[in-house]
Amino acid sequence: MTSDDDLTTVRVDRFLPHPPATVWRALTEPDLLARWLMPGDFRLVVGHRYTMQAVAVPATGFSGTVQAEVLAFEPDRMLRVSWRDADPDSPAQADWTITWTLRPEGRGTRLLLVHEGFDPDIPAQMRARTIMDSGWRSHLMRRLATVLTELDAAA
């Protein structure tokens, strides 16, 4: 089964030419997260609940506010968070788990993203999966790469 066959999950595997410590900063420092993902009150503490703000997408039922919680982390190696739309009546409502895994590779980092919890029996969740799969792979990975390049240049 390929990752495309698993409709419950989005998987992204990227090599980033930046050390794991730099990638970790981009995943865990609130000001950096705001630059490439969404602004929010993230803190790297298991159990910390926080919100992130994005642009609402009424056509998909996305309210623009994500409620999240830090579930687990291993510094410079793994971060796992839960996400859900703040609107309990959102047609795409789901309890998602997003796990970032960082592995040193040469002079850079292999970044693995696993976004789980889509229900193939709910059309709105399949639309959300399609949009998020595309967003993770293109738009957000490009924005992350820009932030990482700026961090390396400033070091």
Q: Could you characterize what this model shows?
A:
Helices cover 31% and strands 32% of the residues. A hairpin with a 2-residue loop joins β5 and β6. α1 packs across α2. The protein is globular and about 45 Å long. The mean pLDDT is 92.
Shape: globular
The percentage helix is 25-40%
The rounded Rg comes to 15 Å
Unreliable stretches covering 5 or more consecutive residues? none
What amount of the residues lies in strands?
25-35%
Q: Looking across the biggest beta sheet, what order are the strands in?
A: 1-6-5-4-3-2
For the sheet with most strands, the description reads:
6 strands, antiparallel
How would you classify the helix and strand content by structural class? alpha+beta
E-strand count: 6
- SSE topology string: EHHEEEEEH
Secondary structure: elements and pairs:
Layout: E1 9-16, H1 20-28, H2 30-36, E2 49-53, E3 65-74, E4 78-85, E5 96-105, E6 108-116, H3 123-154
Antiparallel strand pairs: 1-6, 2-3, 3-4, 4-5, 5-6
Provide key terms for this protein.
155 residues; globular; 6-stranded antiparallel beta sheet; alpha+beta
Put the structure in a nutshell:
This protein has 155 residues and is an alpha+beta fold. 31% of the residues lie in helices and 32% in strands. A hairpin with a 3-residue loop joins strand 3 (65-74) and strand 4.
